[in-house]
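Running this now, will post back.
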Amino acid sequence: MDIVNAVGRRKSAVARIFVKEGSGNIIINDREFKEYFPDEILQYKATQPLQALNLANGFDIRVNLDGGGITGQAEALRLAIARALVKINPDYRPALKAQGFLTRDPREVERKKPGRPGARKRFQFSKR
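Update: finished.
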């Protein structure tokens, strides 16, 4: 099997991944997976597509993660892994789609407006 690449995005985080058959190693920005995501919830989120298909030890994944915070990065990685698995085997698509792993979350941060402290927040009203 050749190396398969895919891209996943969430908020301002971008995950570019390269997948090949292997023993389940995940390297993120030249660091170990568990070192990069020390929180077990984030580890679980990022590997959900692999666990849904019982492929946790079937592939080696190299990841280039950029932008955003750690939660956005974990969810971007989840989307990238799901897209790569569908490229590897189109039969995986119905199972991944049913659990929502192939849907890109479109929510982004709303921009700050002029004359306001934030996007929607107002300065405190002063009567006098």
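The chain has a mean pLDDT of 94. More later if anyone needs it.
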